Give the backbone structure.
Amino acid sequence: MALQTDLAATSEAVRSSDAGGELMADVRVAVIDDHWLTAQGTAEILDRQPGIRSVGFAFGIDDGIALIRDTTPDVVICDVMLGDRPSGLDLAERLVKAKVPLPAILFFSYFARSLGPRVSAVGGAGIVDKSISPEDLREAVLAVSSGGEVPERLRRPKAPKPVDGPRPPSPREVEIMSLIADGSSSAQVAHELGIGDSTVDEHLDRMFKRYQVNNRAHLVVFAERHGWLGGANQRDSISPAGRIQNENGGHRLR
């Protein structure tokens, strides 16, 4: 089983709070990420933070559910993109179906700003950007462990906009990347935009070569880092006047 547990079995289970010396249990945290170094590194960094104890890490939903069942963490930090799709967003639903007690789920992503609304819809306690510092991640974990919200400054970090850099994508390419970031397949993007599947793939292939990325997840990360996707799903900014009816009664974009 691809998971590691009890990284801090020898650590103290209690700590003194900042107010009055009252003894409080450490916040127990599990990490789910499909990259070994990220999963293990995040778990080990958290384990060094005051008031937090890492109970282990896993590399996918199935192993993550087993880890959560075995260790009953207070908070789970789960990567949104497990593979090339945002399957991390299925975690809460899978836990409910497996009848595993539901911890607070803090999602982890390089494009946190675009996924905020979806995180709330699937029962997530919040989302933070993977560029977050260890101290800020600790703050977010402690906030959601007590039923609070991730501070706004941690939910929506501002992506720097370089003066010089790669050529920005066209409006159509932005639409395609925004839908990909939302978890859509090529067929779903084509249906939404009223274009052919092959046209979507041609756009993606050109962007892969232009920006020297290997897959859709990397493309979306690249776009987010350059501030091309904005803070909301691009589909929401398209007015009804920008759509025309096609022969089948559906709609496509002008």
